[in-house]
Amino acid sequence: DVKVTQSSRYLVKRTGEKVFLECVQDMDHENMFWYRQDPGLGLRLIYFSYDVKMKEKGDIPEGYSVSREKKERFSLILESASTNQTSMYLCASRMTGGFSGANVLTFGAGSRLTVL
Amino acid sequence: AQKITQTQPGMFVQEKEAVTLDCTYDTSDPSYGLFWYKQPSSGEMIFLIYQGSYDQQNATEGRYSLNFQKARKSANLVISASQLGDSAMYFCAMREALGGGGYNKLIFGAGTRLAVHP
Prior knowledge:
The complex is a heterodimer. By secondary structure, chain A is an all-beta fold.
């Protein structure tokens, strides 16, 4: 089974801190994604990466950056955390190619971030 | 712009009964894909079922089936014989093209929280 591991399940940070959320997948997937989940809004795409060293902005990239130095690892960075970034963050990966029943997003368990 | 709408914030069902979770979508693309995911309290999103826009038959996976009505742009999830373990958030999602590079992403609805009562 594909496994997507997010290193921290729960984090509490202070406003202005730099925050790193790490995600590792073990199935050699090219594509990796970071979503943010908020009640009533579903999941919204922050950033994604087609392959190593590549990154593209999603729907809500403001206040975030990402890093993909190795194929298996995709990091989400909050340069200066703010209270409106308190949320659940979900990492996902999949093979390259079109979405289908055979090529779906596989998610990690999520990282719940609270910014005080 | 493409859009996914789940109008039921919460649903209740008695154990062993069937339940339908609604999903409507809006797209101008002739080719699209629809997905349902389950999110238990543990937080991990679990893929349940997929329907392609050109698929002739409604998708089924065990106790899950997708009631796909293309003209109405709806893709409702039907769970038969509900179990206590079905209590979770359920998200409908649709494939959306990303620019001209041939890549795409999933866009999600707001979700429906299902509670199964004994």
